[in-house]
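Hi V.,

You were right to ask for the full record rather than a summary. Here it is.
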Amino acid sequence: MILELDCGNTLIKWRVLNSGVSDVLSAGVVASVDELLVELQGQSALSLQRCRLVSVRSDEETALLITAIERAFSLRCCLAKPALCEAGVHNGYADYQRLGMDRWLAIIGAYQLARGPSLVLDLGTAITADYVDAAGRHLGGYICPGLPLMRGLLRTHTQRIRYEDPVVGLREQSFQPGRTTMDAVERGSLLMLRGFAGTQLAVAAECLGAEFEVFLTGGDSALIQDVVPFARVVPDLVFIGLAVVCP
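Predicted structure:
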């Protein structure tokens, strides 16, 4: 069995694969290393042989996490690291080591699936857009706040915007002008999100030509699916790239 970890700034996504056929046996999301160990040790018939991970956390935090995993399960961890070129994809950053590893792996994952020009949209805490041409050259991208950051910025920097987060799944999506502060913020932020996605299609047409694939990943992908109905929704795009970098 293979343990895969995607260590973000606040959450750790994990899944366990059957190493023979790469079937996902179990998966989850936790807030800390301690929670991760509890969940994994609670899995019946767990027999981990390898671990591969990507982390955007500090070097110290990442080292502590790796040590905890290796001690708990007596295995070695493979940490994905920056590269100028990997699996036919050429890093487009001026300093290739400055490109976030989650973005880099999502780009690699998309190119493995498309083998052609691609736009990768990742909608999480932050929203990122990245472009890869037919030759596998990363052309750069964009970063802007996602919905959680937009809400947080408005609350932090304004005196009168205060409301509880809407309960997921209980509020109908609407684009009518809001008549409460919550509706005004939520709908305004959603329109910004959708407008950003629509703009990326126009930029992609300029950078990549008329024919390109669009990949959607990240927790808020569903909010723009109708803006890019032809997109491929791949929730585990980062893990696909991770498997290529750490086979």
